[in-house]
Amino acid sequence: MSVLLLFVAWLLTGVNLVLNKALIELGFGRWMDIYMTGFWGVGVAAGLTVRAVSGHRSDRLDAIIGVSMGIAGALGMITFLMALERLPGVVVFPVRSCGNVLLTACLSWLIWRERLNPAQWLGILISAIAIYLLV
DSSP secondary-structure letter at 112? Predict the structure, then answer.
């Protein structure tokens, strides 16, 4: 089941990224209001629905983490779309993907003390080299 969830997450993220590229190709400025309403509005509606159904009540730490994730996600998406306007997708998509691997793996090792095996360290090194070569 975990592998299936991972596959679905990968697939939906890929669809989202392809649609981001389509948004740029169609003329980013014309569609920005619809995009922002759809992307963030659906997320808010889904979050409120899950909260209502589960009966979960957030504490202050939940709210701080959630708002921080929302701000980082919104700013990340906006800067990603701006990068797509200025650079070809063959540069932007791999740099974003490799950058995510590099950042999350290093922070997981540093903050949460997760152990990485030699193959994982090699993957991180290859990601860093790939970003360097693409940029």
Answer: S
